[in-house]
Amino acid sequence: MFKGFGKTQPGTKTGSAPGSNTGLNSQELQGTALYVRPDWVQGTIRFRTLEDLHQCREFIEGFLKDLFVLHPDRGRFVGKQFNNTAVGIEGCLILYNMPDQEPDGLGHAFISLPAAALATVEVRDIWRMLSGLVGVWGFKATRFDIAIDDFAKTITYEQIQSALANRNFTGFRKSTARKNYDLKRDSAGFTCTFGSRQSNRYYRFYDKEQESGGRIKSNRLEVELKEELAVAAIAEWLELSPENFEELSPRLLAGLVVGGINFVGRTKDKNVSRMSMLPWWKQFVEKVGCSIRHTVSPVQTNLERKKEWFTRQVAPTVALFRKVMGMKEFKQYLASELEAAEGRFTAFHETFVQLYRQDRQISFEW
After folding, report:
1. Are 276 and 305 contained in the same domain?
2. Which of 247, 269, 290 is the last residue of a domain?
3. How far, CA to CA in Å, does 68 sit from each of 44, 64, 78, 232?
4. Which residue range is the domain that position 302 belongs to?
5. Among 87, 106, 158, 180, which is 20 to 30 Å from 9 by CA?
6. CA nearest to 1, candidates 9, 18, 179
7. Tens of pLDDT along 136-178?
8. How many domains are contained in the chain?
9. How large is the average pLDDT for residues 93-120?
10. What does residue 44 show for φ and ψ, rounded to 5 degrees?
C-alpha cells in the first residue's frame, strides 16, 4: 500500500444504507433519508513500463474487493483500439497498450471501475483510491457517476412525469418517463431520463427497489458526468480535508447531483432564472443543502485571471524580495520555494496543469 493512501480505519462514520443487505456503503446526509455515493469511475493513465501499470493495478486491488485476471494480446475497442486486457471478477476493467504500441512512446491504459465493484467499498476509501490514482499516476477521469438513494421516496414518478408533461424542467432539451412492466410481477417500477448518453451530463431517476429486486428500497437519482465535468467533479471532491470529510463529502456529492437539473413552474417570462422551483424539488434541494453546477471555460481566460491576481497582489512583495536579497540569492530562494510549493500540489492543481496542456480548464459555479 502506498504511503498516505491506507484504507479506512475502524470507527469511520460510513455505513450500509437502511433496508439494504447488499453491503452498499453510502454516506448519509445527516437528518435526512438521503444516502449518497460515487457509483461509477472510469478514466485513463499513461505509463512508462509494464511494472508501472502493475503497481497501479495492485493499488486498485488493494482498495476494491476485486482481482484482475490478465489477458495479454486480447484486444478491445473503447474510443480507440487497446491490444491488452485485464478483467476483474466484479467487472473492473483495464485495457492497455504498451509503450512500444503508442506513437509517443508512453503506455496508455483505460480503467473502468463499475458500480458493482464500488458498492462494497467505503466512500472514504474510494476518495483515497482516487487521490492516489490522480496524484501518483495522473489519472484523468472520463466518467464519474454519483447516486442519491432516497429511502423516504420523497420524490415520486408522478411528480417527475407531471413536470415533464408540462415542460417544467431546465438543463436539458430531451427527457423520457416510462412505467416498466413485468408479467411475473405487479410492477417493475419506473425510469425517467434527462439528456443524452452522448452528452457530458446525463440523469436517471428510477425505482431502485424494483431494479434491485427489493434489496435497496429507494428511489434513486443519479448523474453521469463525462470528460471535463467528470474531471472537475473529482478534483473538487479530492480537495476536501480528511478531518471533516464525513460531514462535507455527502453534501458535496449530493450537490453535484442536483446542481445540473432544475424543476420550475414555467410562466410567460422566458427568463428561467426568475422562475420558482416546484415545491417538491425545492424541498429536496434544501435537504441536500447546496447545488453545484460545473461548467467548462477556455483555459486562457482562467489563467489570465490568475496572472492578473498575481500582478496585483503578489508581484510587489516578490519585487521587494529581489531588491533586498539581490538577484543571485533571490533566484536561489525562489527556486527553493517553487519546488516546495509543487510538493504541496493537490489533485486540483495536477488536474489544472493537465487540462491547461490540452487548452482546456475547469471552473466552478456554486
Report:
1. no
2. 290
3. 17, 11, 18, 28
4. 298-365
5. 87
6. 9
7. 888 999 999 999 888 888 888 888 888 887 788 777 777 777 7
8. 2
9. 88
10. -135, 155
Radius of gyration of the chain (CA): 23
What is the spatial distance between Cα 72 and Cα 54, in angstroms, rounded to a whole number? 13
The grid coordinates listed for 309 are: 491576481
Q: What is the residue type of 136?
A: V
Point out the domain boundary residue: 255, 274, 290: 290
> Measured in whole angstroms, how far is the alpha carbon of residue 103 from the centre of its chain?
30
Structural contact between residues 95 and 107, judged by C-beta atoms closer than 8 angstroms: no
* pTM passes above 0.85: no
Contacts of 15 (CB under 8 A, 6+ apart): 25, 28
Q: Same structural domain for residues 223 and 258? A: yes
Give yes or no for residue 133 having a pLDDT over 50. yes
In a domain, 13, yes or no: no
Q: How far is CA 312 from CA 137, 302, 304, 318, in A?
A: 35, 16, 12, 11
- Measure Cα distances from 314 to 32, 302, 307, 308, 319 in Å: 45, 17, 10, 10, 9
